[in-house]
Amino acid sequence: MSQQSQFLYDRVYDLIVDQIRAGSLRPGDKLPSLRRMSLQLNVSIATVMQGYVNLEREGFIRSRPQSGFFVNSNHRAAPQLPSATSPKPIVRDIKMTSIVLEMLRLSRQPNSAPMGTANPASSLLPVRALGRTAHRVVTRNPAAAIDYTEPAGHHELRRQIAYRMSANATVVDPEQIIITNGASEAMALTLKSVTSPGDTVAVESPTYFLLLQLIEDLGLKAIEVPSDPTNGLNLDAFEEIVSDFPISAMLCVVNFNNPYGSLMPDASKERLVAIANRAGVRLVEDDIYGDLHFGPYRPRPLQSFDRQGNVVLCSSFSKTLAPGYRIGWIVADRDREEMLSRKHTLSIANSSITQMTIAEFLASGGYDRHLKQFRRALKQQVDRMRYELAAVLPATTRISQPQGGFVLWVELPRGIDVTKLFHRGLEEGVNVMPGTIFSPTRKFRNCIRVNCGHPFDSVIEGGIARLGQLVDEQN
Ligand SMILES: Cc1ncc(COP(=O)(O)O)c(C=O)c1O
Questions:
Q1: If you measure from the C-alpha of residue 77 to the centroid of ligand 1, how many angstroms do you get, rounded to a whole number?
Q2: Of 352, 367, 382, which residue constitutes the final position of a domain?
Q3: What mean pLDDT do residues 69-73 have?
Q4: Last residue of a domain, one of 367, 396, 416
Q5: Which of 14, 23, 186, 470 is close enough to 180 for a disulfide, judged by CB 3.0 to 4.6 Å?
Q6: Cα(183) to centroid of ligand 1, in Å?
Q7: Atom of ligand 1 minimally distant from the CA of 407
Q8: Whether residue 329 sits in one domain with residue 224
Q9: What is the CATH number of the domain that holds 115?
Q10: How many angstroms separate the alpha carbon of residue 148 from the centre of ligand 1?
């Protein structure tokens, strides 16, 4: 099928899913006939048919002989979004690392449904193409492949990253970029350079647990900022916090936050940068999910709104291409020299082969081609998982509706204990992350994060059904 017709049947698919999500099409409702839909959208009947077949395959609708297509009545009405959070503005010491590491260790179970750690399935990543690219770069330049790169990283890789950012309204000189071992090392080097032990760092509520571990490791303290599952950080609350407390830095994931999936609108990004710049608070942005947008445009990073060099951007290819290559980066203006010297002291430089491979993959257009299909697959998986979860969990369950990335935040009825659920899940081959590790106070005791990075199959289907039964045991 051509690119053009593929695009058209995806439009049919999206239109129906959006109507089901919004509740304008409800379980049991009949879909418009092929002919009517084809006239409405000005596409061929075959294109509408293909869109409907995909919807049926994904479980959203079913066909009745001689009658047409109907919204599947297994599906509940669209679940509500999780509540916005309102943590108390209290500066806290953090003790998370041992509990998080223990949970991650326990959840590494080969045969359980892979809904725990936030990882895409390797079947969705360009495994072969990257292997061929690695082979090509080593054959062409074997000496460079075993040599050190300069500490800031392979120059062509930095140039490619800068080039991609320029398409996203951010003017970056490759000299501002430091290649790191994943986004985690990028965040660690950045935090070390912009804070001193004992300082207070602001985090979103909920926030990605590794950021809490980093804060603990560096002897820092944390204060949580209220957030909502659609737009992210509550900026009025942030403004109050920075005027009431001496905050050194704010760590944030404004594009498809982990675990909320929230996306901060551009106007809010601009305001966040203005508030932080006025208050002298460094913004440390983790943009690891930005390329995984479901809408037509990549959301802008916070850094693109900053004229004062106050925002440091950290990212990596771990969610989009190859987690094991460990290629991440920092884009910094102020403090770049200090970060670079720390990187040099810590590990001299990243591995050369993986840097050269990704540089070549970006330059060849392979990354963009991969992203197109990958984003499409993720959107369908996230939609599907949201509906399947809604069908088995209690009616009052709330589920996020991210516009990118691949995690869902699920707020179960009050009284459900997700630590118990986590352990019972492991016994039953179901792996989800308990909400308690996404906050320094271990709240979110009735919330879980669900990974949707794997194609929906019988293992995941079984996992979701068992999850529903385990929640019912406690309800
Ligand atoms: C928001 C966020 N930042 C960083 C990471 C880790 O990135 P990396 O594997 O590149 O170190 C993750 C992985 O789950 C993440 O979700």
A1: 33
A2: 367
A3: 87
A4: 367
A5: 186
A6: 6
A7: 16
A8: yes
A9: 3.90.1150.10
A10: 25
Judgement on whether residues 293 and 209 belong to the same structural domain of the protein: yes
CA distance 55 to 347: 49
From the CB of residue 354, how many other CB atoms can be counted at a distance below 10 Å? 23
Task: Report the largest interatomic distance among the alpha carbons of the chain, rounded to a whole angstrom.
Answer: 71
pLDDT of amino acid 76: 59
DSSP-derived secondary structure letter, 181: E
Residue 379 within a domain: yes
Residue range of the domain that includes 447: 97-122+373-474
Beta bridge partners of 410: 399, 448
What is the 267 CA–ligand 1 centroid distance (Å)?
A: 26
Do 289 and 212 fall into the same domain? yes
- Contact predicate 190/339, CB 8 Å: yes
Same domain, 111 and 127: no
306 and 252 inside one domain? yes
Per this entry, what is the length of the chain? 475
Q: How many domains does the chain have?
A: 3
Answer yes or no: is 268 within a domain: yes
Hey, whose CA ends up nearest to atom 1 of ligand 1? 258
Q: Which atom, in ligand 1's list, is nearest to the CA of 257?
A: 1
What spacing in Å lies between the alpha carbon of 116 and ligand 1's midpoint? 14
Which amino acid residue places its CA nearest to atom 10 of ligand 1? 182
Provide the percentage of residues in the chain whose pLDDT is more than 90: 83
For 140-156, the pLDDT digits (tens) are 999 999 999 999 999 99
Quote the pTM value: 0.88
Position in ligand 1 atom list of the atom nearest CA 317: 10
Q: Which residues line ligand 1 (CB under 6 A)?
A: 118, 182-184, 208, 210, 253, 258, 286, 288, 316, 318, 323, 328
| Residue 81 within any structural domain of the chain | no
Instruction: Name residues whose C-beta falls within 8 Å of residue 298's C-beta, 6 or more positions apart in sequence.
Output: 168, 290, 291
Residues 6+ apart with CB under 8 A from 162: 172, 173, 174, 176, 177
Any domain includes 92: no
Residues 186-216: pLDDT tens digits? Answer: 999 999 999 999 999 999 999 999 999 999 9
Task: Tell me, in angstroms, the distance from the centre of ligand 1 to residue 470's CA.
Answer: 29
Query: Domain check: are 137 and 29 in the same one?
Result: no
Phi-psi region of 380 (alpha: psi -120 to 50; beta: other; left: phi over 0): alpha
Phi, psi of 359 (to 5 degrees): -55, -45
